[in-house]
Write a structure and sequence with these properties.
4 helices; alpha/beta; 6-stranded mixed β-sheet; 8 strands; 164 residues; Nucleoside Triphosphate Pyrophosphohydrolase
Length: 164
């Protein structure tokens, strides 16, 4: 295979997007959510993995957290990976990391990225479904179950446990 053939082959492969986020809680177990200004529903601090720049999911979760809420924290363990299909876009491989428990001092230093976010809040687990749309709600619940149980990473497809 020539270099040109290989480049043509690579260009013809399916495209997949990748996203990464961190799941932060406070001392009472409430989940930190952010309100984007560019779409409906709330989200976790996170965003697109900039793979063209050589970034991996863990690096993206840290960068996006620093950009969006002003906290530069190393993500903890991987809690969930979700293969999220969508209409009108390629599938997204969504990585969700443990952001840990934030202290009152850390919460007080949150500064929103005003270009993308309207607000942030801490939400009780029981109320998450009212804020998280699509596959994000099930993904966050699966990650919280992993934290509660001490189990390994949740493997999801469209927010549901992947068949084994």
């Amino acid at each position: 295979m020539t270099t040109t053939d290989y480049a043509t082959y690579i260009a013809g492969l399916p495209r997949v997007l990748a996203g990464a986020a961190s799941l932060f809680r406070d001392g009472t177990g409430r989940v930190l959510l952010v309100e984007p200004n560019y779409r409906a529903g709330w989200a976790l601090p996170g965003g697109t993995v900039e793979s063209d720049a050589g970034e991996g999911p863990r690096q993206a979760a840290r960068r996006e957290t620093a950009e969006e809420i002003g906290l530069d924290l190393e993500p903890g363990r991987l809690l969930a990976v979700d293969w999220a299909r969508g209409t009108g876009r390629p599938p997204i491989a969504a990585y969700l990391y443990d952001g840990g428990v934030l202290s009152e001092e850390q919460l007080a230093t949150i500064r929103l990225q005003e270009e993308e976010l309207l607000s942030w809040k801490l939400v009780e687990r029981a109320d998450l479904d009212a804020y998280l749309l699509g596959t994000l709600g099930p993904r966050v619940r699966a990650a919280l179950e992993v934290l509660d149980s001490g189990a390994g990473t949740a493997e999801l497809e469209d927010g549901e446990p992947a068949a084994r």
